[in-house]
Amino acid sequence: MPEAKPKITVKPQSSVFTGDTVTLSCDVGLSTGQKIIWYKDIDRTAGFETQTLRDVNVSDGGKYACAEIGKTTVSQALVLAVRERPKPVVRVHPDGRVFKGQTVTLTCDIQETDVSSWNYSWKKDDSVIHVSQSQVYRISSVHESHTGHYSCTGNETQGSRYSHISDKVTLSVSGSDGQLPILSVFKLVSFLLAASLYLLVTIILGVKCYRAHVQNDEIDQYAVIEK
Q1: Which domain of life is it from (predicted)?
Q2: Residues contacting 40, CB < 8 A, separation 6+
Q3: Range 122-131 average pLDDT
Q4: Which one of 1, 24, 114, 192 has the lowest number of neighbouring Cβ atoms within 10 Å?
């Protein structure tokens, strides 16, 4: 009677990030509590039916297989892929000074992964404020209360993987709506009027001085002629 072929399984999944915990199980049928030979690439070690890899790193990735000690049938190989845990980058638009009433868009950018879909979690000052499958978080008509430090993380929609938390970005909202306050406008108009009046007076005085100088010259010329 041919030997039953062991079956190897992995939890939570075969593609993980560094720092995750992975459990490999070798099902050898009715035999339980038996010693198992574990194969990783070209290496082999003895162990039990369940093997837990904690805080995995990239070097833990590879082809795994198993067989019951004393048996020749080896399970089908299972490929474990370990990738560096990604760190999102938050981009803000507009990225300069933001005024009350404007619309602000924050984007959580996660690159270099094989994750097809993320749930994005947004924090403001370390408190969760928004969760969505869209990487864009839009704040319409911002006001002063939106001022704070924002960050994001990603959690795999159909899996167990998650990203690092991004660096925080600071959003500062000015109390003005981008227009000059009425008092500032009044001061500006007053200054321009005062400057215009000063310039006008200066021109008038200059003209009068010039005319007086011309008249004095004419008087002096007549005085010379009469002599």
Answers
A1: Eukaryota
A2: 62, 63, 64
A3: 96
A4: 1
The type of residue at 208 is K
pLDDT band at 105 (very low <50, low <70, confident <90, very high): very high
Tokens of 184: 């500032």
**Cα→Cα distances 120→66, 76, 115, Å:** 38, 36, 13
**In which residue are the tokens 């007086």 written?**
212
CA 58, CA 212: separation in Å to the nearest integer?
Answer: 95
Angle at 94 between CA 89 and CA 103, to 5 degrees: 110
Q: Which amino acid is at 90?
A: V
